[in-house]
Each structure stands twice: as C-alpha cells, then as structure tokens.
Amino acid sequence: MPDREPIADLAIVGGTVLPMVRNARETIRATVLVRDGRIVGLTRQRKPRAKEILDAHGKLVMPGFVDAHCHGIHLLMRGLSDGLSYHDWLERLMYRALPAYRAADALVASKLFCAEAIRSGITTIGDSTDFGNRADLVEATLEGITAAGIRALYFRNFSDAPPRALRANREPAARALADIAALMDRRGSDNPLLRIGAGVNEAHFVTVGGFRRAVELVEARDTRLMVHLAEVEADVQIDGINVVDWMRRNRLLSSRLVAAHCVWLRPPQLRTLAAAGVSVTWQPSTNAFLADGVMPLREVLAAGITVGLGTDDTNASDHVNMFTEMRTGAMSTKLRERDGTAVSPDTMLTLATRGGARVLGLDREVGAISPGRAADLIVIDLAALAPFHDLPSALVYQATGAEVETVVIGGRVVMRDRMLVTLDEVALRAQAHKAALGVAKRSGVVSSRAEGYADAAQYLFSQEPDEPN
Ligand SMILES: [Zn+2]
Fold this sequence. Notes:
alpha/beta, Urease, subunit C, domain 1, 2 domains, eight-stranded parallel beta sheet, 14 helices
C-alpha cells in the first residue's frame, strides 16, 4: 500500500488565508490542515482527508488575535468608571471593589471575559489578577480561562510594599514568589494552553529586592514579568528620577519584562527599554477612557521595541474587542501626530497578532499561520465587510468583531457560526449581572453618574413578568 498522509483532525477549506507571515496583506487561497492542535499544512487540496471540515468559501482565515494585557475579572465593575481619572479610578473604585470579590464572582467574570474575547477573535490573552495573594480569586480566574478553552499567559501579581489603600494585598516577596513558582509547576500540567508569569503591578508597589527576585524567577523559568509603567504623567518619576532610569539603576530591566502602557515615556527612556529587550503593551481604549494620554507609537516603534495590543481593564473602556483596540489605536495615533499617515492598518494588524505573540514569548506558537504553529485561527465573513477595497483597512476601520464567525484554539473549535461551544453566554450574562450587583453592594461603590442604576438593573434578568397596574 502506498504511504498516505495521516488524516487531519480539522481542515479549513476554500478560504482566503491571511497568514501574517511576511506582511499584513499577502493572502493565499489554501486549505489549512490541523492535527494534534497544530497547523500541519497549507495545501491546494479541495477534498482533504479530515475528521472535520470547515467550509470557508467567501471567508478570511487569519491568526487569532493576541490580547497581550488584560484584567478579565474587572468586567463586573463596568459602568462605574466613566468620569474618573486614573488615580481616582484606582482609589475610589478598584481598591474598594476588588477586595469585595468572592471566588464565584471571579469565576463568572473570567468566563464572560473569555466569551467576549473569543467573540471578537481573540485566541490568546495575557491576563492578570491584581490581588495575587487571594488564592481563591487566582484559582477561580484560572478555572474560567480553562473552561473557555482560550490560550493564556496568566500573570500572578504580588506587592511586598503596596500603598496604604492596598495594604491587604501585601505579601512578603519570598513567600509570593515561592507560591508563583509552585503555580508554574502545577498549572503547566493540567491545561496545556495555560502558562504562568509573574506581575508586580507597579514599580512603586514592590521593594527593589522583591522586584529583582521576580525578574530572576521569570528568567529562570523562561516566562514573563508584567509591570504597569508610566500610564499617567504622575507615575513617571520614582524616588525623584524617571522610573525607567530607576529600574536600570536597580538592575530590574530584562528581556522577560512586559511593560504595560508607557504613555509618558520619551525617546531616551524608550531606547533604554529597547536596549534591555523590554517589550510594551499598548491599551488605547483604556488610555482614552481614563484620559491618560496617547502612547507615542511612532517613537516606541522607532526605538526598536516590540509592541502588542491589549484590551486592559474591561471596566475602563467597558469593552473587550481587539477590532476596537486596533481602530482606537490607529485613530488616536493619527490625532496625536496630526498626520493621517502616522500609522498604517498593516501595523495595527501586526501588533494585534505577531506583536502580542512576541511580547508574551509565544511567537513560535501563535500570531501567524504556518506549519508547526498552534492552530489558533479565526474565520471572518468577508461578505459582511462589503464593500471594501483594501483588506487591512477593512479589518481595522470597518470590522466590529461581529464578522468573526468561527474561532479555533489549539485545533479545537470554540466558536462555530457565532455560537460559543465552550461557554453558555446567556447564562453567564445573567450570573455576571447578579455578581456585579453583589460586588457593588458589598463594596459600597456606586456609579457617580447613574443614580438608581442598581434598582433598574435588577429587572434586567427578572424571570417574573411585572404585575399590570
Ligand atoms: Zn493593566
């Protein structure tokens, strides 16, 4: 008998493939073959041997998006942040509401966040929970991520010198890092899509010694360390010097460091980050919503820094959608530079896929379609974008996310024809709404703008019809 190719698990047939390998606009007509969770070939076969065939005629097949920086469980506090500036938002809302979370709240929030992410074509997330010392919240968040079937690098945060308002979050660095190392050991085995990193939240929330030991841990484990950096002008200095210079002086810069935001850094500090191999995540919607400022994309890229896009806080933009991030990022950059050529849609697509993958250290796994990479793919209905002339432009400026029909992660179909396979979104919305009201009530946070919000909202998922008057 002649050798025959082993049967594929999945074949995506008839689509236009945007591999994102050479650039953001070169497409090919090809069948994508998937086996054991990986892309094993791009072929001309119209009738491949496969256990499951996805018909993609008239569709675009592209890599799933990488949401390089997010905080999924913050989603329960949507609608409470409008009108707050960054520090007010932290102190009046986040530092009060997050401690009021229970594990069940984190679980439903994590699942619903993943549902919304998958709906807009996100297949990898770089998620963080701020209260790292709350093991119940960490475990519930990871349970939600695992249930969704999304790929994740989860940053387990710690603070050994938090501000007064966050003192309940304080953990000695040695204990926290031992716990993070144990989580890394344990979590790799029960969910192959999940990796663990560390996070220090803000440079001024940790001691220099704690920060340095965290860097050493992620270097030894070949993973990543997340830090929020210069999101607002007030946080650019630490101990009287620029925070990047302070980190360099204290030997805290590393190629494993992922710096979120960097809105207020100038070229000398950006070059310092680039020289150390630090990568940056950009969250344009949150930066606009909280009026932080606009990250200087041109200067960041000119310095040679790897950049990924993130949806960030889910309650400080109230939205989980990578198309929104691409569009808002492009438009805010044009406005900042007052130059319509300041950024191309090609660049935005690259940041949302390959850029994020490199930031998270997953660039050999995800961010592009090529044999050997993980089968993390999305299928987009091109007819829903008509009329269009330029594909990258249509994806960045026309698409809303509703055009994403099917999502495959690690070879598994997690959304088929807009129906989530792994999660019950209708039930999750009702549960999340109830959980959100519970957190708001227990923590005492209320919207400054919408009086009576809670009363009105209770009826959203009421099963009983109202009595007629
Ligand atoms: Zn963040």
